[in-house]
Amino acid sequence: MKPNLTYFAGLDIGGTTVKAVLVDAHGQQAGTLVEVRSLVRGGYATTFGQLELALEQLAAGACIERQAIAGIGLDVPAPSSDGVIWGRANLGDDWVGTDIRGLLSARLGIPVFMTNDGNAAALGEYALRKDHTSSLMLVAPGTGLGGGLVLPGGRCYEGVNGLALEVGHVSVPFREDDDSLPSCSCGLTGCAEAWVSLVALRRRLGLELAKPQWAAHPLNQSAACIEEKAYQLRDFAQQGDALAVSLFQRQGFILGYLIADLVRVFDPGLVVIGGGLAETSFRNLYMTWIEAGFAKRAWPVYRFSPLDPDQVSTRFEWASGGDAAAAIGMAYTACELFQ
């Protein structure tokens, strides 16, 4: 065992798994990523047991005693404020209204920092860019459309209710073919998430497949449900399929258009695009669609520096942390806060 060293853990609670990362006092990762089942529907106490299991595995992997872990960063897949979850999301009922941070800290006897999963992923992308010290905004299309903003120095902007950077619920001026506004899961209409998300892909795919021009498309010949067909769209797009490419092109353009308005508010300098599309073979093409939407909406000053026209003032990068980004962000934050 390694004596007299201090470590910090990042715990990312997902609907299915807990991902865990350990770093030393210098922010360097110790051991490897650990994954255990989250069991969130069984209640927070059950998940606490899984968190302890993850910590034991982290300690064993790094050849340290668990007592050497001096702080924890924890993220949850639900809205929270000051350690208290106030929205159920995919969690069991007893999570809501509970001081998760306080209870876990008392149970483990060490300090805990807690935020939501979008903020955690943004912090992870910031931590992975060792030479980046200014702000960073993460926008991540997935089942929904999430985001996070990390301020210079590595502190995340959460907002007073933990609801900052709900980027998916910013309105965008796009309409369906019949001039209607699409409904969003939040209850409003016209939100960006209703255009840029897996849920949006399902809707748009259904509408397109009903058109005569796609009658002979392989997805129209399939007996699979619309959810499964939407999952297949990435594979079709990677093969250059016209329908799939057109759907992703529109999504990318609308995402870029949205980002232009977000940049006008926050001026982060660096925008990181997360989500599953970061792993696709057509991601460079998708990025050009994002940049086209951004160019359509952004003021020139947010595209090129007013002091040096050869310098780009807003850079775009793909996320590099993958599934471990949120856990890395939480470990990094615990290291910064608790030593």
Describe what this molecule looks like in 3D.
This protein has 339 residues and is of the alpha/beta class. The protein has 2 domains: 7-110, Nucleotidyltransferase, domain 5 (2-Layer Sandwich); 136-319, ATPase, nucleotide binding domain (Nucleotidyltransferase, domain 5, 2-Layer Sandwich). It has helices spanning 44-62, 100-108, 117-128, 198-209, 218-221, 226-238, 242-266, 283-297, 325-337, and strands spanning 7-13, 17-24, 34-37, 69-76, 80-81, 84-85, 112-116, 136-141, 145-151, 155-156, 270-273, 315-318. The strands form 3 sheets. A 5-stranded mixed β-sheet has the order 3-2-1-4-7. A 5-stranded mixed β-sheet has the order 10-9-8-11-12, with helices on one face. Strands 5-6 form a two-stranded antiparallel ribbon. Helix 8 (283-297) links the parallel strand 11 and strand 12. Helix 3 (117-128) packs across helix 9 and helix 6 crosses helix 7 (242-266). The model has no long low-confidence stretch (mean pLDDT 95).
